[in-house]
Amino acid sequence: MQNGRCTCRSAHTLIGSIVLGMTILMIPMVLLLHISAGTCMTYRLTGNVALKSVTHQSIDLLNNNTASNAVDGNRATNLANNSCTYITAKINPWLRVTLQQSYKIVKVAITNRGDCCADSINGAEIRIGNSLDNDGNNNQMAAKVYSMQAGKTQEFKFSPLDGQYVNVLLPGVNRILTVCEVEVYAISEDMVSTMQSKKTNVAPNGRATQSSVNQGSAACLSLAQNAIDGNRQYDLFKGSCTQTNTESDPWWRLDLIKSYTIMSVALTNRGDCCAEQLNGAVIHVGNSQESEGRANPVCFKVSFIPAGGTRTFQCDGALQGRYVTVALPGDNRTLSLCEVEVFGVPTE
Question: Beta-strand (E) ranges in the chain?
Answer without folding.
Answer: 25-27, 30-36, 39-44, 54-57, 87-91, 94-111, 125-129, 140-144, 153-169, 173-177, 181-187, 200-201, 207-210, 251-268, 282-286, 298-301, 310-327, 339-346
